[in-house]
Amino acid sequence: MISVVANCTAKKLGRPAPARELYLGPSVARVVKAVDEARAWGAPVALYIISAKYGLLGEYDVVEPYDETLSGRPREELKRWAAERGVLEKLRKLAEASTLVLVLSKPYYTAVEEAACETGAYVIAPFKPNCGVWIRSGNFDKHIALRKLLKELSTPNPRSPTR
């Protein structure tokens, strides 16, 4: 199993919806599309979204729209937020049962960095994370790197990425 974790976006539907539909920003839409494509070729992929209001959501968790973000918050506040919302513990549990892939903006990565370090998660990002397996991407092409990684992780061969 592969668990892909993205972060919420400011643009949202104006009504309650499953997390994968609520967030209208292009970053979430592209991750959802890459996950759906991977599932179509048989990859065992689960999708989660870190919400500034609700914490870690499964893709089909139905939630109300809101106006909250982690962007602009101090580093220690981000880390405290992730611990208090149970996000760190949930990511650790996901990593025990699956390969963890984080497709996060800098503030959301900072919030969960401790779990990324402990689990050796893949981190698809334009910035170099302090730990985890970094897969470099631009801000607007993370989904391309994600699609490639999902293909590699779900295709058994000796050249698959290693931790």
What would a concise description of this structure say?
This is DUF6884 domain-containing protein. With 163 residues, the protein is α/β, with parallel strands linked by helices.
What does it look like?
The protein has helices spanning 19-22, 26-40, 75-84, 87-97, 106-119, 142-154, and strands at 2-7, 17-18, 45-51, 55-58, 62-63, 99-103, 122-125, 133-136. It is α/β, with parallel strands linked by helices. It has one domain (2-10, 26-46, 68-154): Rossmann fold, CATH 3.40.50. Strands 4-3-1-6-7-8 form a six-stranded mixed β-sheet, sandwiched between helices. A two-stranded antiparallel ribbon has the order 2-5. Strand 6, helix 5 (106-119) and strand 7 (122-125) form a beta-alpha-beta unit. The radius of gyration is 15 Å and the shape is globular. Residues 7-128 form the DUF6884 domain. This is DUF6884 domain-containing protein. InterPro entries: DUF6884. It holds the Pfam family DUF6884.
User: What is the percentage of strand-forming residues?
Assistant: 15-25%
* Helix/strand class: alpha/beta
Number of distinct beta strands = 8
End-to-end span in angstroms? 16 Å
Kindly give the count of domains: 1
Sheet with most strands: 6 strands, mixed
Helix content: 40-55%
Q: What spatial form do the alpha-carbon principal axes imply? A: globular
Count of separate DSSP helical elements: 6
From N to C, what is the helix and strand string?
EEHHEEEHHEHEEH
Mean pLDDT: 94
User: Low-confidence parts lasting 5 or more residues at pLDDT below 50?
Assistant: none
Strand order of the largest sheet: 4-3-1-6-7-8
Q: Specify the CATH architecture.
A: 3-Layer(aba) Sandwich
Radius of gyration: 15 Å
Look up the CATH topology.
Rossmann fold
CATH top level class name: Alpha Beta
